[in-house]
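Cross-posting from the modeling subforum.

Setting up a comparison between two proteins and wanted a second pair of eyes on the formatting. Protein 1 (sequence, then structure tokens):
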Amino acid sequence: MFEPGKTDIGRQGVLTMRQASIIAIAAALSTGAATAQYTNVHSAAWGEANHAQILASALGGTFNAATSKDYSNGTVYADRIKDSSWMSPTDQIWSAGTYHATMVAHEAGYTHTFGYVEGNKNNLGSFTGVLRSDEIGSSATVSLDSNFRWAIKNDQQFGGHLFTSRDNDNPDCDDHMVAYKLLRDGALFGYALFFEDLKYCSDKDYNDVAVILTLVPTPQAAMMGLTGLGGLGLLAGRRRRETM
């Protein structure tokens, strides 16, 4: 549009400034959206283990921050999975497969059952328990042939609430699980799940229940020498136990 009193150069300057403003706004919105894709994890309470410490106890070595959300011990890379996204996979719905689950940490006064709920949504009555949070070192193999959600259920004396990896399932509609992909030499071999057991996620430290998952290899992969975790270290509520 022609503006009286402005030369072509002046009009180009106006357009350039407008374009720059639009780009700046779009960039700010994009940054905000990217941040919102990850649930914020707060520092663990005094005397409790945080994610890096739990990972180190379970997988060995010393885990340090690799990015603002990821950790690494130099051999294993814990890559945080998005909690919400329109464009990429998140930790809310899990694919069919066979997973070996090990209870590695319990930093809570409550006790719980860890398990899963079948399907992409609803169906909460189908919760199936797999491990107890107060039985550190216990393990089980889970095989599912359709999509599902990981979950914890507080014991009845602690409210009996069921919290799944899908936030809209939960009574407070909050995110109660954060997860990491576990990579060795760039290859995925498992996941680390961290749960929050308080309604409304009041402390948001996501260390109340921690489970390590390893992918059970196909027979072909087993023949190639692929293995899961060897020699898990374990953490139990503000106290350490010797591995058996």
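Protein 2 (same layout):
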Amino acid sequence: MRLLPCFILLTLCACQAGQNDAVIPQAPSVEKLGGLAGRIVFQSNRDGDWEIFTMTPAGTDVRQLTKNAWQDEYPVWSPDGRTIAFKSNQQGNYDIYIMDHEGSNVRRLTHHAADDEDPAWTADGSKIAFHSKRDRGLEIYIVDVQNGLCKQLTDTRGRNILPAFSPDGRYMAYTGSRFLGWTVYRYSLAGGKHEKLTDLDACRPDWSPDGGLIAFVSGDKSPKADIWVMTPEGKAARKLISDPASYDYYPAWSPDGSHMAWAKAADKKKGNWEICVMQLATGQWKNISQHPAQDKFPDWAFPPAP
């Protein structure tokens, strides 16, 4: 197995962005990961359907937050770690919901006949963006957490999905398709300008905590899919996590930017998705979920102590 160390993203995308390989050190011990702070939220079907769980970055103290007869998916922490947004089809179609960090006080935010999917918090935690086919195509919308008011954020040719906001609140990165394939774009929230950041076949952008890098998923020069990083201007793209035997997806930075969580599987549709954590300075990594069920869509934060 090969993963690339670096010093310094759907079932909707088959992704592909150019550069090199490297040999990686041995995976870290449980003790080294045991000192990491925060909790990782993720979705799993280990109880028979998609539910939401959290665990430590070492994969211990697994807690199930939702348990019901419907699908709860794509969980993401609010910037302060106190709230989790997710999509759920408990009313038939998918809407955006939020709940407190320990799984209580579930509230429905969107009410629409179309599927509202894959939420992302704004930098100040006041709003949540998501993609939906409410009008003529897939576009990104944004809903106010306090009053539930919703408006359309993008309106372009093609399709726009998977938003992610910069920590300074100035930009939204997202996955867009204008003609063929998927590409990562950057949208200026103040100026309204859309900028293409990658070549065709790249998706799932995720900003580093300091805003200096964007992680994303691409299958360029890979038999499956890798995790890359680039500057916010789309420069200096390079592989961060690369394993020719696996699909590496769903990048999620640690709150301090020193580690990354992601999910990997040998087969995108039929493989066993596992959540892993890598120390970026050394390339050392570990499978932390180690479960026969599908574990995916990790997100990492510092929630309040229980």
